[in-house]
Amino acid sequence: MSDKADSISRCQWCSTDPLYQHYHDHEWGVPNRDARHLFEMLILEGLQAGLSWITILRRRERYRELYRNFDVHFMAAQSEADLERLAQDASIIRNRLKLRAARQNARAWLELAEQHDPVIWLWQFVDGQPLINDFASAAEVPTTTAQAEAMSRALKRAGFSFVGPTICYALMQATGMVMDHTRDCFRHAQLGGIRRV
Known about the structure:
Blueprint: H1 3-6, H2 18-26, H3 35-48, H4 53-57, H5 60-66, H6 72-76, H7 80-87, H8 96-115, H9 118-123, E1 131-132, H10 146-157, H11 165-174, E2 178-179, H12 186-191
Parallel strand pairs: 1-2
Helix pairs in contact: 3-8, 3-11, 10-11
């Protein structure tokens, strides 16, 4: 990494880890309306529960291998034996509840997709447009909002698990439904012109 890249001002939560910085610089807060990507992030945010995001980022490529790039049909069809094999893989988070929830969420996604476009359905909680915040520091950034709480309730009603309000808000931040780069971050200026709250 160049000295120039090292001198960039980023959000306070972003460490010096190149993987973390790439995620922060190119993905976090960028509006995304790709169904596969939204499903991947929903699963990853649930897997993160109780852990640091860098823990998940470091395992993301392995999850992509095991889940066939988060193929929702493949994940929904996993057997108990498949889940047990995953639970033996030391390269991922082997929490059986989370692995089971990932399968359940794939099944719930397919059921949701029978009635709605999942992309439009998820984006409805921000009225279809990114919410652009203007926080001065990480201390001002909330861990949940009314929109995230509404998403959480709706996802739970639709049969999803590991989708509490905090997880839903992290999903919204990660996929650009909400832009929470702080004012001192170089991405704030780049992403801040979409729409003001």
